[in-house]
Amino acid sequence: MPQDQLLDHEYDGIQEYDNPCPGWWHAIFWLTVVFSAAYFLFFHVGYNGWTVAEAWQTAAAEDQKKLFGTMGDLHNNPATILTYMDDTKWMNYAKNVFLANCQSCHGPDGGGVVGPNLTDDYYKNVNKITDIAEVVKNGAAGGSMPAWKTRLHPNEVILMAAYVARLRGKPVNGQCRPPEGKPIERWPTLAEVTGAKSKAKPGGASK
Hints:
Blueprint (H helix, E strand, L loop, with lengths): L22 H23 L6 H17 L4 E2 L3 H8 L2 H14 L1 H4 L15 E2 L7 H8 L15 H14 L14 E2 L6 H5 L10 E2 L1
Helix pairs in contact: 3-7, 4-7, 6-7
């Protein structure tokens, strides 16, 4: 067994042994250097590396599949929108989507900021309840209202239309924008569009 060797220098009366780092420590160090170079080339230079944003989008898509898997495909018709307007679970979900994406223009209560007030009876691009989903999907006002068809799941577009329709007539905390556009007729009831006397189950979905 090799003897410990003192180095030939002294600091404040203190000497130290010559104890080099073990070989395995050096091996790990150089492996991390090689790995960092490969990591940089793969994620920041090459074209095959995935990004955090791409990983998030993939995870979000999987979550949406699970979320909407039992719902089927929602269609833009009055019965579907009116039904989901009264569905507390999905309206809470739509509210979160609205707050995340729409409140900067329309306010947290829908009273309007730079975008129009969604709580009164005046509309610029809507004449009937199904027009709301078209505006959400395709945008309006020459791009001032962006198209969300590439950023929202098709079912989310319908749920957002139901949530926006639900905002009509709701009280607003604080100031809201003055009326814009023209007044339109009230939304129909579910019974009026289905001919049913009682509340129907969520419709408009095809498995």
